[in-house]
Every structure is written in structure tokens, then in C-alpha cells.
Amino acid sequence: MTTPNGAIPLDRVIGASVPSLASAADVAAIEAVPLRERLAALNTYDAIRVGAARDPNAPAIEFLPNADPTDTPITISHGQFVARVTQTANLLHSLGVGPNDVVSFLLPLVPQSFFVLFGAEAAGIANPVNPMLEPHQLAEILRAADTKVLVTLGPTTGADIWEKVEKIRGELPKLQTVLQVGGERLGDGALMFDEQVAQQPHDRLLSGRSIDPDDTAAYFHTGGTTGTPKLVRHSHLNQVYQAWVCGVMLPWEGVGRILFGLPLFHVGGALTQGLAALAGGSSLVVLSAAGWRNPNAVRNVWRLVERYRPAVFGGVPTVLAAAMAVPIGDADVSSIRCGSGGGSAIPVAVGKAIQTRFDVPVIEVYGMTETASVHTLGYHDREIRLGSVGHAVPYSRVRAVRIDADGNYAGDCGVDEIGVITMAGPGVFTGYLSDVHNKGAFVEPGWVNSGDLGRIDADGYIWITGRAKDLIIRGGHNIDPAGIEEVFFQHPAVAFAAVVGQPDSYAGELPLAYVQLKPGASATPDELHEHVRAHTPERAAVPVNVILLDEMPLTGVGKVFKPALRWDATQRVFDGLLAPVREKGVDLEVGVAAHGTHGSLATVTVKAVPESERDAVMADIDARLGPFAIRHQVVFA
Fold first, then answer.
1. Same domain? 187 vs 258
2. What pLDDT, in 10s, does the model give residues 277-312?
3. Which residues, other chains included, contact 233 with Cβ-Cβ below 8 Å and sequence gap of 6+?
4. Which of 327, 596, 611, 615 is the 20 to 30 Å CA partner of 636?
């Protein structure tokens, strides 16, 4: 495989000798070469082949069954990995999968999930789906994608993926084939993946397909777990560009290893770490099928670092914070050259702890599914400013803009003026699969609306100040929860903190804090409340209450799941308001959850009330809950 003249080939991007990026002029020099001439591969199949050509015998995947450094890893070399991906693509081709057909998969981080992701992209379109979603959510995603082939985990102790698939198979009209990974053969029409793959040739694509860089490579679902998730279309160029960005911009210290625990249904796992490492000839040390969700992964983190010697210690902020609470002991962690995090803002206190403990820079990355993950980061050959997400990566652009009440572009923001962050570049998608989701997705053609608030300072550093939808509006005054959360993180006992809006009939919302303490630490809500009061200059931003949680609700990729906290806050308020109704002898329960039309809906379930009294009870409840913006319904059990 030849490398275009002047290109930085993908087989050298990790640890590559690249020009300095210390100034805007240096970046302009990089961008003087058109991107497609710079890349050694323009589709993901060729990208992993380029990575394998570096050393076919080097490990591509080292799977640790128990996320323990004493595990004997299941090792797959780069040559074997390309062969398995090719066989998977050929199997899918034999099942009728073409460039426009969708292969969905519901798998944990077993080696086969990597074969399926890139094999499906070589044959058609991959659709990795979070297997932890509820069956009705899975059905919606698989149906929206027009799934033709589904690859799923077979019946396995401790996993309910197969049971979910059994519930929804009949709801997928386009589904033709189910491939089963592991588990016993059930004779229900599902084909055993490993057996079928082994029958395919490994040295060529039987389809003879020439994969264009603008062909659709994958759909990634986004939008959290409320409502129907949106399907983001990624082209092959979107994904290969992401691999190039991460290989060039992060100090990997040559071909090495990455402690890998992010799921493949998340772009950070599939692309920022996954494809980037594989295309660069590095190894993914996979921390069991559960990844970072396996308690052993965090518990053993420093011994894993000692054993596998990664240069970059990266993860979502919750993983970084949990790891920093684990004593290093006598583990040799000298391989770490930088810390890196993304998915949500790294608390400054966590960043400082990493800097102090390892004497290394902390590089914060920023992006979204719609930008194929990393779009900005702290350049390692420039000053690292904790709290900033650095600058846009080469070939990409970022602006802070004003949006009017109708969601339309109303001008660019000035220096340090907070606005909506919008992004353009080769990683930015062209739109969601369904046009209904594209309204408001772009501020201007090619410029995706991130939904985040931020500012750009006089030196061009980008500072994310919060989610537009996370703003707490107290009596018309906007409160950004990120600043309050940072104050909590400065307390030595705090592991995680999240501030959300508690509904209030007068002010609209009041800030309410949820806190999870570090293992073995102690602090009372009053103590934490006083700490925030003393260090928060804005009186209106001081939380009205602090609630201690044993465990913070997290998404499948380790982000704090704030909708669950908002529902809890609403339930607490409504429970309090309905106490007088209970005192009248009415047995009732309040539940708050996501709702497709209203976003969130409070349901008051009333038990054992005679039909003749129901109108009066309903009127009483409506009078107490009516002043709130959140909708409610009364159900008589």
C-alpha cells in the first residue's frame, strides 16, 4: 500500500515525527496539504490494514477476562485481526449485506465485537448499540436503522442480552439473520458466529468492494436514554480522520498499549481509542467484557499500568476520578506521559490531582458523536490550561455563536463572550439518519450545533461552560452548574458531584446538589453545603440542599446521568407538596420518568380511593402540582 506524497501515513501517526503545532502558523502548514492527500487510507478497512503492515505479529488486542494484571491475555495479533475482520465482512456479504445494508450488534467488549464493527463497515454499515438499554429502546433503534443482520451475545450467565433479543425479534421487519456469539446452540434459526466466520476466506474481500471515503461506515445512536435516540451517520472519512487526529495529536510514545475499557457503541471507544490504536499498530488491552464497568478494572488500575506500560492514561472523568482514589502503593507508573479525558468536562480538581501525582500534562479533549468524537484538545506542545479544551484540531474549526429565541444564528460572539459552541471540519457528520432530527442540528451549513455553552479567549483557547439544557434558570437568572460542581470537587472527601435544577413554583428552578463521597471518606451534607457557600461568590448559585448518594447514576460510558437526578429532585419536591394529601388518609406514590412528548412526566399513583372521592383528590393534587412547568398525571390504582 503506497503512501501519498507528503502524507503522514496512518502506520506512523502514533509516535510519528510530525511538525510542531506550537503556533497557528504551524497548523496552517499542516493544512496546506489537502487532507485526502495526507492520509494513507481513506476507509476504515484500509486503515487497519495499514496498521497491521507495521508489524503483523504485534498484538492488536490483549483481552483480560477479569481485568486483572495476572490474567493470561487472549492475544490477537494485527495480522490475525485483519484476517478476522476480512472473514467477518465475507460472512456478512454471503448473507446479502451490501454497502447500504445495516449490521447491528449487541455485544460486550469481547474480541468478536471488534471484528463485527470493522467487518460490518467493510461489507455495509455498522450499527453498534448499547445492550444495556431496555428492550423497547433497542427495538426502536434497530428498527430505525433497518437492521438486516443482528449479531448478539448468546445465552450467558450474568447477561440478559439474549433475553432482550428474544423479546424484540418479531418487531424488526427487515431483520433476516441473527448471528450468535457464544452460548449454547438453541436451534431457533440463529447462526453461530464463530463457526460461520471460520468458513470464510481471510485474504480478500469476496465482494470486491471499493470503499469510497464518503460511503456511510456506521450509525451511532446518541441523545442519551430518554426518548428515541438519534442515529448519527458517519462516513469512512469521518472515522479515518478521527484516527489520524488522535494519532498525531496525543503523545503515545511510539507503538504501545492503551488500557481499553470504553464500549464500542461510544465513539470514544470505537474511534478515539479503538481505530486510532489499531490504525497505528498499537495494542488495545481490553479490561474484560465489561470494560471500566468491571470493578476490578479500577481496583487494579495501577498494577495494570505497571504491567502494560501505557504512555497515555485516558478515560471519561468519572473513571479518572475513581482511579485517583485508588492508592498507587509500590506500582511502577513511570510509563505515563500524560493524562487525557473527555466525554464531559474533567473537574479541575481531578486534573490537578493527576498533574501533581504524575508530574504530567492533562490533555482534555472535546467533541461529540456528531463530530466523530475528538474535535478540540489541549496541544501537548502548547501551554496546557486546566479547564480549557484547548484548540480545534488541524483541518477543523470552532466558533461561539449567538442563537436567537427561534434557534437561528444571530452572530458570532466576541472574545470571552459565552455562546453556543458550533463546529465544522472533516469529522462533522452530514446529518442524522432521520430528517426529523435534523431541524436545529446545524447553525449554518456544515456547522453543527453542539448544544454546549462556551467561550473562546484572546489566545484562542476554548472553554466549555456547560450544557445549554443543563442551565438552571432561577427567577430568570441563568446559573451554570459546572462552576458549582468544581467547588464541590475541591473538597477532599468528594468523588463525584452533580448540580441540577430542582423545580420551584416561584423561581422556576433552584440549584440542588448530589454528591458521592470517596471510599472511606466522610462528610456531612451540612459540611459540604458550608464549603460551597464559602467558596461560591454568587449567592443565587449556592445549592438549596446537598444530597449524599452511595452511587451516582451513570450512563453506559460513565457520564453522570443527570436526567435521573432531575427526576429524583422533582419526586422529592412533589412528595413534600403532597404530604398534606397523605395526611388526609390518601395512599399515593410519586414517580418521575422520561416521556416521549413532554420530556419528563410525573405520575401520581393513588391507591384505594372510592370512585366517589376521586374527583376531589385529583383536584387537590392538581392544585398543588399545577404551578410547575413539569407535567403530571394522576392514576388511580
1. yes
2. 999 999 999 999 999 999 999 999 999 999 999 999
3. 216, 219, 429, 430, 431, 432, 433
4. 596
How big is the chain, counted in residues?
637
Contact criterion met (CB below 8 Å) for 470 and 502:
no
**Cα–Cα distance between 37 and 40 in angstroms, integer?**
8
Q: How far apart are CA 349 and CA 484, in angstroms?
A: 13
Q: Tell me the per-residue pLDDT of 417-461, one tens digit each, with 9 for 90 and over.
A: 888 999 999 999 999 999 888 988 999 999 999 988 889 999 999
What contacts 160, CB < 8 A, 6 or more positions away? none
Q: Which CATH number goes with the domain that contains 169? A: 3.40.50.12780
Closest by alpha carbon to 282, among 117, 130, 59, 445? 59
In a domain, 12, yes or no: no
Q: Which pLDDT does position 185 carry in this prediction?
A: 87
pLDDT tens figures, 3-18: 333 333 433 444 344 5
Which residue in 400, 523, 528 sits closest to 468, CA to CA? Answer: 400
Say how far apart CA 142 and CA 149 lie, in whole Å.
Answer: 10
How many domains does the chain divide into?
Answer: 4
CA distance 470 to 486: 15
Mean pLDDT (the chain, rounded): 89
* Residue 133 confidence (pLDDT) above 50: yes
Residues 6+ apart with CB under 8 A from 546: 513, 514, 515, 525, 526, 528, 529, 532
**139 and 114 within one domain:** yes
